[in-house]
Amino acid sequence: MNEALWHIVIVLFFVWATTGFVWMAFLTVMKLEQHLHELRWYHLMWAYPFAAVFIVLDFAFRVTFGTVMFLDLPGRDTLLFTHLCKRHRNEDTWRGRMARFWCAKFLNPFNSSGRHC
After folding, report:
1. What letter does residue 64 receive in the DSSP assignment?
2. pTM of the model
């Protein structure tokens, strides 16, 4: 395998792994939110810092992969990936189809309300 192909494989693996990691962190935050009323201070001392780190991670995911996926630069109203999906979900374009896919398959099913975006 030539060097250029290896670079492509490495980049694709990095994108796959990063997306999975951000999604797993999202699942954790959604589960914590679902049980927030049951958590005590000794749970919260871990939960709140993790949630804060997740927000930074979500922002980083949005400004990198979200920008490339949707070909849409971050704005004041779209600093997180969910905001980006909400902005485009009702459009009858490829961006709308992509936003609906992310909402339906990765975000909404794991929010306790069933409607994350």
Report:
1. I
2. 0.89
